[in-house]
Specification:
- The structure is a single chain.
- By secondary structure, this protein is α/β, with parallel strands linked by helices.
- It has 2 domains: 196 residues, 2-enoyl-CoA Hydratase, Chain A, domain 1, CATH 3.90.226; 38 residues, no CATH class.
- It is 48% helix and 19% strand.
- The strands form 2 sheets. A 7-stranded mixed β-sheet has the order 1-2-3-4-5-7-10, sandwiched between helices. The protein has a 3-stranded mixed β-sheet with strand order 6-8-9.
- The protein is globular.
- The model has no long low-confidence stretch (mean pLDDT 89).
Length: 239
């Protein structure tokens, strides 16, 4: 079964266990409020049979950040809350998320690539956090970037706005794989999705939940939680 829905700038296609979210907005696929809401909706309440969500883009850029539409101080909290909700939905969804990064990713767009469970990029893609040029500390990025790349790298990347390569992004742990060109990107993404779809969606959901929980716990607490969940999983298998 194949279904299609769309908002301006974001097209969603469901085909059995695979969902495809395609960014196709002018001006570098910057995320608008409507695009954020549509992405959150499918992450929070995906079709019952869905297992993997592929986030891809059309055009030269993957995503050059987000649209800054709040024109008054009163409108800013709602705009920021919407961005937080996207990050929260990416973390909390039961879906496995895969990012196909065919071009540059900046700011919020770099976050979309980094926060996906699996992310593959072409070697020509560049990444950067441009908020310093606006006189802003990218606090939503800093909420997760330090845990992913370490405090020193997180400081440098956000304090300078320096562009860095896909190879460097992979070295830092922001990507799984870097490939030479678009045909290689398609092959790599297809291979990874095929491998994921060949495994139980329930177990993938448990893996994601354990990884999310463990980052907020002490080593002893994480071990205790891991032991409890392993017992539950093993009991389920023995039935």
């Amino acid at each position: 079964m194949t279904t299609n829905t769309a908002v301006e700038g974001l097209r969603l296609r469901a085909q059995g266990p695979l969902l495809v979210a395609t960014l196709e907005a002018p001006g570098g696929n910057q995320m608008t409020a409507a695009m954020c809401d549509a992405l959150v909706a499918v992450l929070r309440d995906p079709p019952e049979e869905a297992h993997v969500l592929l986030l891809e883009a059309r055009g030269e850029a993957f995503c050059l950040g987000r649209e800054r539409s709040a024109a008054t101080p009163e409108a800013l909290p709602a705009e920021v809350a919407r961005l937080v909700e996207v990050n929260s939905a990416l973390a909390g969804t039961r879906l496995v998320t895969v990012a196909r990064v065919q071009g540059d990713a900046a700011g919020f767009g770099a976050g979309l690539a980094a926060l996906a469970d699996v992310s593959v990029a072409v070697e020509t893609a560049s990444f950067w956090f441009p908020e310093i040029g606006l006189g802003l500390a990218p606090t939503l990025v800093l909420a997760w970037l330090g845990r992913m790349v370490g405090r020193r790298e997180a400081f440098w990347l956000t304090a300078t706005g320096e562009h860095f390569s896909a190879a460097r992004a992979a070295q830092l742990g922001l990507l799984n794989e870097v490939v030479a060109d678009l045909p290689a990107l398609d092959r790599a993404v297809e291979r990874r999705i095929e491998l994921l779809l060949g495994q139980p969606a329930r177990v993938h959901s448990e893996i994601r939940a354990m990884l999310r929980s463990a980052t907020a716990l002490s080593p002893d607490q994480a071990n205790e939680l891991a032991a409890d969940r392993l017992v539950i999983g093993s009991l389920r298998l023995s039935r």
